[in-house]
Design goal:
A hairpin with a 4-residue loop joins strand 14 (370-371) and strand 15. 40% of the residues lie in helices and 17% in strands. The protein has helices at residues 3-7, 12-17, 50-53, 62-72, 85-96, 109-127, 147-152, 156-159, 177-183, 207-219, 242-245, 271-274, 290-303, 306-309, 312-330, 355-364, 387-406; strands at 29-33, 36-39, 44-47, 102-106, 134-138, 169-172, 188-193, 223-227, 251-254, 265-269, 333-339, 342-347, 367-368, 370-371, 376-379. It folds into two domains: 3-60 and 311-406, Aspartate Aminotransferase, domain 1 (Alpha-Beta Complex), CATH 3.90.1150; 75-307, 3-Layer(aba) Sandwich (Aspartate Aminotransferase, domain 2), CATH 3.40.640. Helix 4 runs antiparallel to helix 13 and helix 16 (355-364) crosses helix 17. The strands form three sheets. Strands 4-10-9-8-7-5-6 form a seven-stranded mixed beta sheet, sandwiched between helices. Strands 1-2-3-13 form a four-stranded mixed beta sheet. It has a four-stranded antiparallel beta sheet with strand order 11-12-15-14. It has 17 helices and 15 strands. The chain is an alpha/beta fold.
């Protein structure tokens, strides 16, 4: 595509040719470097959104670019009729640094969760009985957009309107152990949860809740699935968030930051649970793609380092300090949520349900943020964003807040 042809593509083209399931910003990003993005007009933005926690190392990180370039000249795709070196290398890294013995690669968080849920039911049916199929999930959870995963997710606004839903799925309040006790039984095959709920408002699981759920799963021979699609891969300050709680899941899912921007996901589990699977029972054409796994290896090596993980807490503190400066002037936040650089700012009562207004106004001042629900602002920047960029971006955001507050 020539520069002239590229320039001819405008934002209104989206409204004409794309399925209307998104409402993207009015500008089109065309270039990114680190924590900065440029649009078609050459305007520069500071990126606090990170592709919804995907761009964990920012845009065009040199080590990821190098890995992609080198692999692109070797092997792009062979399907799972054959294996490939990058897939095995990334799988080995995940096994070496987690509880897991076995890895399954796919392309998105939804696919990883779909695989996890299918595995849990298959394991329970094979090991116990064909009626052990109940899945316990939580209100405000989010696990993907396939019919199965969106039904397991605890937000009706995403799952209603598509006809009959998969059966034997129960939703209870998050962080409520008594609610889990009330519904778990011998027919339960799995409990699935996010240690930090992402789309549901950045609510963290309490240590007591996770310990209690683990105990209940052991008691009723149910598998504990941790969805770390958003909170994993360094986002909260450890490689995976479960490592902060000392609670070991039976299955864990990862995606988003796993490829640093290249689509890839993984399901992690143990030898015992994986033993019920066999060739043909599940699969994917693109999963374990050499390009994705080569980039994944590079991203893994950078993220899983003290140079990155040891800085997350300090960066979170700086973000909150800057948000507090804004709050002291405008009183727009009531609390801060999440862990590490999965950071949420709860809007105060006068601004409830206006998160999207903050997001849209922020883009006017050249800073990219997110929302998590209607009343929580979400910040998921690069894990290697500089302090200078945090301060500069927050100065821009402060102007956006000022405009929004004064426009009431």
């Amino acid at each position: 595509m020539t520069i002239k042809q590229q320039a001819s593509i405008k934002r209104d083209c989206f409204d004409k040719v794309m399925l209307p399931v998104y409402a993207p910003a009015q500008f089109i990003p065309v270039k990114g470097l680190g924590s900065r993005v440029w649009d078609q007009n050459g305007e520069e933005y500071i990126d606090f959104a990170g592709g919804i926690a995907v761009n964990a190392l920012g845009h065009c990180h040199p080590k990821l670019v190098k890995a992609l370039q080198e692999q692109s000249e070797k092997l792009w795709h062979v399907s799972n009729v054959f294996t490939n070196e990058p897939a095995l290398q990334l799988a080995q890294r995940l096994v070496d640094h987690t509880f897991a013995d076995r890895i399954f690669f796919a392309n998105s968080g939804a696919e990883a969760n779909e695989a996890a849920l299918k595995l849990a039911r298959h394991y329970a049916i094979k090991k116990f009985n064909p009626y052990k199929t109940k899945i316990i999930s939580f209100t405000h959870s989010f696990h993907g957009r396939t019919l199965f995963t969106v039904s397991v997710g605890g937000q009706a606004k995403y799952s209603d309107g598509f006809g009959p839903k998969p059966a034997d799925i129960v939703h209870v309040p998050f962080n409520n152990l008594d609610a889990v006790k009330a519904v778990i039984d011998d027919h339960t095959c799995a409990v699935i949860l996010e240690p930090v709920q992402g789309e549901g408002g950045l609510t963290c699981a309490t240590p007591e809740f996770l310990a209690g759920v683990r105990q209940l799963c052991d008691e009723f021979n149910a598998l504990l699935i941790f969805d770390e699609v958003q909170c994993g891969m360094g986002r909260t300050g450890t490689l995976f968030t479960y490592q902060q709680y000392g609670i070991i899941p039976d299955i864990l899912t990862s995606a988003k930051a796993l490829g640093g921007g290249f689509p890839i996901s993984a399901m992690l589990t143990t030898d015992t649970i994986a033993s019920v699977m066999y060739p043909g029972v599940h699969g994917t054409t693109y999963g374990g793609n050499p390009l994705a796994c080569a980039v994944g290896c590079a991203a893994f090596d950078v993220i899983n380092s003290d140079a990155v993980l040891s800085t997350i807490t300090a960066k979170r503190k700086l973000f909150i300090e800057q948000l507090e400066k804004i709050n002291q002037q405008f009183s727009v936040f009531s609390q801060y949520r999440g862990k590490g650089l999965l950071l949420g700012a709860q809007l105060s009562e006068p601004y409830h349900d206006r998160a999207r207004d903050f997001l849209n106004t922020a883009t006017e001042f050249k800073v990219m943020i997110l929302n998590a629900g209607t009343s929580v602002l979400r910040f998921t920047p690069s894990l290697v964003i500089s302090d200078e960029e945090i301060i500069q971006g927050m100065a821009r955001f402060a102007k956006a807040v000022e405009k929004l507050v004064n426009s009431k």
